[in-house]
Structure prediction request, 96 residues.
Amino acid sequence: MSDIVTKAVEALTEKLGGDAFDGSAKFEIEGEGSIVIDGDGVRASDDDTDVTLTADADTFQEILEGELNPTAAFMGGRLSVDGDMGMAMKLGGVLG
Prediction:
């Protein structure tokens, strides 16, 4: 597992603040690995989920740091979404 994925798991866990995520989502960080968020928390994993969001490491970091809105990243072609768009929007609210 890459350092980027490890740090992202920590940052996402902090953003959730101990709250469970109702559903499942996966972030695929191109060239680094995957992170799953679900009712069990946040972990490095490639499990099947309701929605998969794919971005490069820089885009993902900007979203985590609050520098880039997930919706703006999607509309600008920097973030792709495959699966349940409603779940993606729900996750965007958590990250927002």
User: Anything to note?
Assistant: The chain has a mean pLDDT of 89.
